[in-house]
Amino acid sequence: MLKSLFRRKNIDQAIKDVNSVEHGSGLAKVLGVRDLTMFGIAAIIGAGIFSTIGRASFNGGPAVSLLFVFTAIACVFTALSYAQFASTVPVSGSAYTYAYVSFGELFAWIIGWALVLEYAVSNMVVAISWSEYFVSMLENIFRIHFPRWLAIDAGTAKLAYQDVQKATANGTLGEIASNMKALAQAYVDAPTFAGIKIIFNLPAGAITGLITALIYTGIKESRNASNILVVIKLAVILLVIVGGVFYIDTANWKPFAPNGMKGVMMSVASVFFAFIGFDSISTTAEECKDPQRDLPKAMLITLAICTILYVVITLVLTGMVNYKELGVNDPLAYVFEKVNFDWMAGIISVSAVVAITSALLAYQVGQPRIWMVMSRDGLLPKKFSKIHKKYKTPSFATIITGLFVGIPSLFMNMQFFIDLTSVGTFFAFILVCCGILYMDHTGLSKNSKFRVPYINGKFIIGITFLAALFWTKYNTDGVFAHIGEKPLIIVFWLAWLAISIMALKYKFSLLPVMGILTNLYLMTELGWSNWRMFLIWVVIGIAIYFLYGYKNSKLNKA
Question: Is-above-0.85 flag for pTM?
Answer without folding.
Answer: no
